[in-house]
Recover the amino acids of this structure.
């Protein structure tokens, strides 16, 4: 502990300096469960996270959107108080993970990128022992485990071994496990990667219910539909930095147009057509397989294209998505 | 499905301060290992009874008959009685080594269960201590069974021979801790094959389990005396036969304790390097 400005609200209260929640100029506010300034993570010469600022408020669903290798998982592991930051300041639930790791982790739920369930135990046993790691009495864990198995619809598999379960079931069990300590903050690292569409929707439904109950969610994803479905606010990450921040609608409003006209031509002709059509859109993006024309009126642009005598192999008008935001910010597709 | 299925608002978990107590964490990790072991204890019980029976019958009785025909050992006992405590110490080595290799690599690398545990208030040192606590428990039970078989074969000086149990357990711990550190250090299980080939098997054969080390070529004797298994065998045999040399025993105990403590330190360091990144 050095200067007063470095003290969190809890620490100030403990020191008798404040009775009411105080706004610390250079620290997290009382409702900011995650607070980072200049947060960095380096592995040798490689910089995975490069000085990012984040604030996640209580009750929010906050997302990190970005391609593989953007630094999302490294950030999540630092927020999970398991990976020490190389530089910058980080407060989780008002505490410093560098000194209060176990105390912070006691109030977090973590769904890692790859399931790390104990394959040799049954579904229920996985919950029972995980609860013990939080120091919860056995009887209480048993009650809670039954409720959670019901919540993730695994009650009928409770006494089966984990190993033969489907990917979606394992994922749901991992989520149930992360809730065994009734966390205030739930961290989900790519919760639905590798799941089939049905399993993804089942999972989104559970996460949405948790959010309604006031659990603060922090998740990473490289799916824009997931980010649009679940997140109140998100940051777009690229190469360890934050490229943009806002609600999905704000980001689309700021970095894209309302609609997008997608034109496909015979291979190799995209570039040639782009020049002739550039004036029809606010912005034009040339991808290997198609042209994207950003405009507020996709149908009008499509008509204009045809009027010029251009005959694309296919024409599609759609609403802008976070994919377009990402393309604009980084010049690359999100999922490659 | 009702909205009451997951009460997110009741705060009933144990307060933070209690998580800071070291013993709680390691005890819970131990509990987890035991829960895991519960599913395969039968197989391990069978082998822990069967192995000493087979070894003592084959080596102790059959081979022992030949050895005893040729003349008495320095200790003036049957070969079976000489061999049994050596095998006891060697079993401690093997049990500890087995439990500290594949299960550690599995939890670190293959299933990443350690990563899952460290997302809770559990700390790295709880993992190490809990794991060693489990091995301690495995050693005590396995070696107690071994001793019972020895007694049944008449290869145990009663009741003084039971003092060989703590000696053999200490031998096991002197392997468990450094081997755990080794398991967290090597990249893949090829390292274990090397450990067995160049460490465990030669020790098993040449560190006094089957014959006194002074039967080895003079040049190799110091190597054998330097191995942890020799110190374990020496201590275990001394207690089992009741002819313990107190000075030598002190050297043996010191050696094993220092190795175990060094192993705990190394294991903590190595686990930390692999898990806290």
């Amino acid at each position: 502990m050095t200067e007063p400005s470095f003290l969190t609200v809890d620490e100030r209260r403990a020191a008798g300096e404040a009775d009411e929640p105080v706004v610390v100029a250079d620290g997290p506010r009382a409702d900011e469960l995650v607070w980072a300034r200049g947060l960095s993570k380096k592995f040798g010469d490689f910089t995975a996270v490069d000085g990012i600022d984040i604030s996640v408020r209580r009750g929010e669903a906050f997302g990190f959107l970005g391609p593989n290798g953007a630094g999302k998982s490294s950030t999540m592991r630092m927020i999970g108080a398991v990976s020490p930051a190389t530089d910058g300041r980080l407060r989780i639930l008002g505490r410093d993970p560098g000194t209060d790791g176990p105390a912070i982790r006691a109030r977090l739920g973590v769904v890692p990128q790859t399931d790390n369930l104990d394959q040799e135990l049954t579904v229920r046993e996985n919950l029972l022992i995980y609860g013990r790691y939080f120091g919860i009495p056995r009887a209480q864990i048993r009650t809670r485990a039954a409720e959670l198995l019901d919540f993730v619809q695994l009650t009928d598999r409770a006494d089966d071994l984990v190993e033969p379960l489907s990917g979606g079931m394992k994922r749901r069990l991992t989520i149930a496990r992360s809730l065994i300590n009734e966390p205030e903050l739930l961290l989900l690292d790519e919760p639905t990667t590798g799941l089939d569409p049905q399993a993804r929707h089942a999972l989104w439904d559970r996460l949405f219910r948790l959010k309604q109950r006031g659990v603060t969610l922090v998740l990473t994803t490289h799916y824009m539909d997931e980010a649009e479905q679940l997140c109140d606010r998100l940051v777009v990450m690229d190469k360890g930095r934050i490229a943009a921040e806002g609600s999905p609608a704000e980001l689309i409003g700021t970095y894209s147009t309302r609609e997008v006209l997608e034109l496909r031509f015979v291979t190799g002709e995209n570039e040639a057509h782009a020049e002739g059509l550039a004036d029809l859109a606010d912005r034009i993006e040339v991808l290997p397989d198609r042209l994207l024309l950003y405009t507020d009126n996709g149908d009008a642009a499509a008509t204009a294209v045809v009027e010029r005598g251009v005959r694309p192999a296919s024409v599609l008008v759609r609403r802008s998505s976070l994919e377009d935001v990402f393309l604009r910010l980084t010049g690359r597709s999100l999922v490659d | 499905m009702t909205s009451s299925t997951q009460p997110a608002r009741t705060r009933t978990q144990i307060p933070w301060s209690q998580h800071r107590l070291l013993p709680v964490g390691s005890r819970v990790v131990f509990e987890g290992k035991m829960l895991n072991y519960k599913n395969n204890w039968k197989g391990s019980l069978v082998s822990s009874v069967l192995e000493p029976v087979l070894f003592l019958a084959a080596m102790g009785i059959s081979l022992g008959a030949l050895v005893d025909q040729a003349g008495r050992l320095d200790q003036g006992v049957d070969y079976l009685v000489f061999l049994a405590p050596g095998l006891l110490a060697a079993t401690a080595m093997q049990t500890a080594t087995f439990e500290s290799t594949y299960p550690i690599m599995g939890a670190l690398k293959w299933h990443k269960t350690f990563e899952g545990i460290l997302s809770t208030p559990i700390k790295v040192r709880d993992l190490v201590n809990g794991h060693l606590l489990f091995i301690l428990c495995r050693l005590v039970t396995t070696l107690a069974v071994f001793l019972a078989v020895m007694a049944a074969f008449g290869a145990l000086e009663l009741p003084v021979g039971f003092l060989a149990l703590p000696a053999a357990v200490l031998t096991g711990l002197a392997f468990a801790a450094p081997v755990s550190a080794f398991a967290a250090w090597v990249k893949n299980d090829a390292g274990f094959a090397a450990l067995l080939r160049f460490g465990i098997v030669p020790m098993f054969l040449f560190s006094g389990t089957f014959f006194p080390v002074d039967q080895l070529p003079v040049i190799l004797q110091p190597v054998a005396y330097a191995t942890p298994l020799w110190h374990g065998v020496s201590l275990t045999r001394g207690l089992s036969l009741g002819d313990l040399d107190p000075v030598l025993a002190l050297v043996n105990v010191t050696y094993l304790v220092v190795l175990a403590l060094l192993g705990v330190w190394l294991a903590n360091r190595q686990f930390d390097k692999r898990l806290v990144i």
